[in-house]
């Protein structure tokens, strides 16, 4: 907002709430307006902005404590109503904070991180609370994102140990399967050689290294 002796200029992405000495209030949109020297003018930003919640320690259904944050995208849609609150964005902040606590209270710690990323019902629950709070103070809440959910360090360590154990067990299972398949192949080969002696002799000849000498004994059939 820019004030001159005769005009009020309202900049982009803002409005100005003007009131005269008779108590009449009006909202001035972008542009230049005639100034009432006895009036008062309060600029209000209409640009979209983010309300960032500080990390919250929130109890879960099984008594654990997790940390989480959230961010809400908001804009002023009723500047007169917004100015009637000293800190209107704190109303939205508190609503998001309480909604997160209520939502997490229904979940066990193992479910919290997954729900924050993949459960639209949880995000919608928090968004509904923020939208209702925003309407009370003249704000529109476009979105809310629950993010940076951190479970306690000891539970993270236990989870990693479980994942490692599962991976090691799977690797051992695959190794056992491969060994069983190899033994089965060897057993089948041994059975074939046992049933076909000539094939066994041929296989032995094939196994002799190149350049080696081979002595053959001719059996004349005499006793």
UniProtKB/TrEMBL annotation:
Signal peptide: none
Pfam families (alphabetical): Band_7
The organism's place on the tree of life at top rank: Bacteria
PANTHER family noted in UniProt: AT06885P-RELATED (PTHR10264:SF19), BAND 7 PROTEIN-RELATED (PTHR10264)
GO-annotated cellular components: plasma membrane
TM helices/strands, residue ranges: none
Record-stated family: Belongs to the band 7/mec-2 family.
Protein name: Band 7 domain-containing protein
InterPro entries reported for this sequence: Band-7_stomatin-like, Band_7, Band_7/SPFH_dom_sf, Stomatin_HflK_fam
Domain called Band: residue spans: 10-179
Organism: Tessaracoccus flavescens
